[in-house]
Amino acid sequence: MIKQIWFDFGNIFIPVFPENTKEQFERCGVQLPEAHFAELHRAFEVGEMSQYEFFQSLTDSCKFLQSTNCVKRAWNCMLGNLRDETLFLKKLGKSYDLALVSNTNAAHIEAIAAASGPFLWKQFTNAFDGLFLSHEIHERKPDASYFEKVAKRMNARPEEVLFIDDTQANLDSASALGFKTLSYNCQNESLQYSINQFLSDSFEY
After folding, report:
1. How far apart are CA 178 and CA 187, in angstroms?
2. Which residues of 120-144 are buried (b: 16+ CB within 10 A; e: fewer)?
3. Which residues contact 140 (CB under 8 A, 6 or more apart)?
4. What is the pLDDT of residue 67?
5. Parallel, antiparallel, or unpaired for β 161-165 and 180-183?
6. Is the distance from CB of 77 to CB of 21 less than 8 angstroms?
7. The whole model's pTM is what?
8. Measuring CA to CA, which residue among 107, 112, 167, 127 is closest to residue 143?
9. Are 27 and 77 in contact, with CB atoms under 8 Å apart?
10. Closest CA to 51 of 62, 61, 43, 63
11. What is the pLDDT of residue 203?
12. 3-state secondary structure of 133
């Protein structure tokens, strides 16, 4: 029986367009080998690197003199608008414990909160019983240690959790640990329909 629902953030509640950032990085002149960028990105996502260090590293790689503001704007331009699912989340919250489980970074969270406005952001975050952001808990998906840490803090049994994500590697990792999983992308589907359909098919709703 499902007792908790865990949601990824990007492409679940907010569309993400990495190609926009890639294009803007090129315009800013960012020049980093893919492997080096992946290392920086990981360190930023698990809170091992500050915003200043991350954006300064990218700025230092530019082929011409550039400001960190240009690089930061490029980094944040992958973000779409936060979708207002608060009423649906409040309805779900009457029957299930809810958690937001996201690989993200401080810069993106700040940008989303600012763009959404204080009312929507507060309503959105308050709909969850737990917020588990990779840069704050120093773990990230698809590592098993991420799911284990969240499960401990949420007092959850994997077989009683529905985990929703748009990335197959994360879903596969969760499934291997015994979690029920649902692949979903807000750019293609309705969140309410997808969840209701899953719960209905599982006789959980």
Report:
1. 27
2. bbebbeebbeeebbbbebebbbbee
3. 42, 45, 46, 103, 134, 146
4. 81
5. parallel
6. yes
7. 0.94
8. 167
9. no
10. 43
11. 66
12. strand
Q: Which amino acid is at 70?
A: C
Q: Both tokens of residue 61? A: 């790689």
The mean pLDDT value for 98-121 works out to: 97
pLDDT band with cut points at 50, 70 and 90 for residue 66: confident
| Token pair listed for 15 | 């569309």
DSSP 75-132: HHTTB-PPP--HHHHHHHHTTSEEEEEE---HHHHHHHHHHH-HHHHHHHHHT-SEEE
Six-digit token pair at 18? 């990495």
Q: Are 145 and 139 in contact (CB under 8 A)?
A: yes
- Those residues with Cβ within 8 angstroms of residue 189's Cβ, 6 or more apart along the chain or in another chain: none
pLDDT tens sequence across 122-176: 999 999 999 999 999 999 999 999 999 999 999 999 999 999 999 999 999 999 9
